[in-house]
Amino acid sequence: MADLVLAILHHLFVFALFAVLFAEFVSVRCGMEAAAAVRVARIDAWYGALAGLILIVGFARAIFAAKGWDYYAHNAFFWAKIGTFVVIGLASVPPTLAFLRWRRTSATPANEAVARVRRYLWIEVALFPLLLAFAAAMARGYGGF
User: Fold this and answer.
1) How close are the terminal C-alpha atoms of the chain, in Å?
2) CA 7, CA 25: separation in Å to the nearest integer?
3) How far is the C-alpha of 80 from the C-alpha of 95, rounded, in Å?
4) What does each C-alpha distance from 21 to 14, 64, 83, 106 come to in angstroms?
């Protein structure tokens, strides 16, 4: 039963993370006003919280659930998934710092700053499907070494 609960939570958190990322992606636009920047900063706090929950539940699942740590530790797709998650996390740092700066100043963000943040959001959105592909391959037994 623990395996099922952890799997459900993991999937819910991953899809919620994508929803938050997509909300940021749609909200960050040239010409956005200060109030919108404050809203995006609040949304981004959920992004960080969900990412942390995904790591906690994901590693709990890898260690304590049905397949066990040995299955995951020796799977290239698991490590590719973790690596992609790390790259997405690193790409999320500049937008988070920008959102915090925008919230602190309560000013309308410059279009150049918005464009810079959107480039990072594009990277995150573009990499996200790799997480799903690697997870699907891993779950079906591909990538074992």
Assistant:
1) 28
2) 27
3) 24
4) 11, 29, 18, 22
User: CA–CA separation, 91 vs 123, rounded Å?
Assistant: 7
Rounded to the nearest 5°, which phi and psi values hold at 41?
A: -65, -40
pLDDT at 27: 96
Q: What is the pLDDT of residues 35-93, one digit of tens each?
A: 999 999 999 999 999 999 999 999 999 999 888 999 999 999 999 999 999 999 999 99
Give this prediction's pTM.
0.92
The tokens for 80 are 């590719």
| 117-123 contacts, C-beta under 8 A, 24 or more apart | 117/28, 118/25, 118/28, 118/29, 120/91, 120/92, 120/94, 120/95, 121/21, 121/24, 121/25, 121/28, 121/95, 122/25, 123/88, 123/91
Query: Which tens digit of pLDDT belongs to each residue from 56-66?
Result: 999 999 999 88
